[in-house]
């Protein structure tokens, strides 16, 4: 199921990135800036949790930045992150999913989660922020892509209809 869930996340993120790219940057600069900020936050959190899963030093001291990268850069990083997580869930051995990792959040608070909980958080976190981006798309009059798991399943497996 984890493999399918991360395929779904990759699909939903791509649809969101494509939709954000249609926002008229001059007429709806605020909506575009908000969407980019949300995408930046999403990928930074993913990069932080990737480091935690690997036992590596955290790559960021915060979950967002004052200067937000352009949409192309964000798209590249999100795509790379999705590829990494998809590969990770294909390769990890089930007993390791229940291993609890201890870490420090960027706000200084201590945390501990199993690898499986971290993976659930990554998917759930992305869903939450894609929803917020959907509001920005609405404000900008851009098409808001359906990104639910049911739409994904039926797009990936049309014979289920």
TrEMBL record:
Pfam families named in the record: DinB
Keywords: Metal-binding
InterPro entries named among the record's database cross-references: DinB, DinB/YfiT-like
Record's keyword annotation contains Metal-binding: yes
Gene3D superfamilies assigned: dinb family like domain
Record-level Gene Ontology MF annotations: metal ion binding
Domain of life: Bacteria
Record keyword Transport present: no
Binding site for a divalent metal cation: 41, 125, 129
Similarity-based family: Belongs to the DinB family.
Protein name: Damage-inducible protein DinB
Annotated source species: Pseudoduganella rivuli
């Amino acid at each position: 199921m984890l493999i399918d869930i991360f395929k779904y996340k990759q699909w939903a993120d791509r649809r969101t990135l494509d939709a954000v790219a249609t926002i008229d940057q001059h007429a709806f600069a605020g909506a575009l800036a908000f969407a980019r900020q949300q995408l930046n936050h999403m990928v930074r959190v993913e990069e932080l949790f990737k480091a935690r899963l690997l036992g590596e030093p955290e790559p960021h001291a915060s979950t967002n930045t004052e200067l937000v990268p352009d949409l192309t850069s964000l798209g590249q990083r999100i795509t790379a992150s999705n590829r990494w997580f998809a590969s990770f869930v294909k390769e990890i051995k089930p007993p390791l999913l229940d291993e609890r990792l201890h870490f420090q959040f960027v706000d200084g608070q201590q945390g501990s989660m199993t690898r499986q909980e971290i993976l659930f958080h990554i998917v759930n976190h992305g869903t939450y922020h894609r929803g917020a981006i959907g509001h920005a798309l609405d404000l900008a009059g851009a098409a808001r892509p359906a990104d639910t798991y049911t739409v994904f399943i039926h797009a990936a497996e049309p014979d289920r209809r």
